[in-house]
Amino acid sequence: MVDHGEKESAISVSELCIKVGMSRQNYYAARRLRQRREVDESLILNLARRERKLQPRLGGRKLLHLLDPELKEAGVNLGRDRFFELMAENDMLVVPKPGRPHTTNSRHYLPVFSNLLTGRILQAPNEAWVSDLTYIRTDGGFLYASLITDAFSRKIVGYYIGDTLEAEGCLKALDLALSELPADKHPIHHSDRGTQYCCHEYVGRLQARGMPISMTEVMHCYENALAERVNGILKQEYEMDRTFRTKEQARMAFKQAVWLYNYRRPHLKLSMRFPATVHAEAA
Question: H helices of the chain, where?
Answer without folding.
Answer: 4-20, 24-54, 60-73, 80-89, 167-179, 195-198, 200-208, 220-223, 225-237, 247-264, 275-282
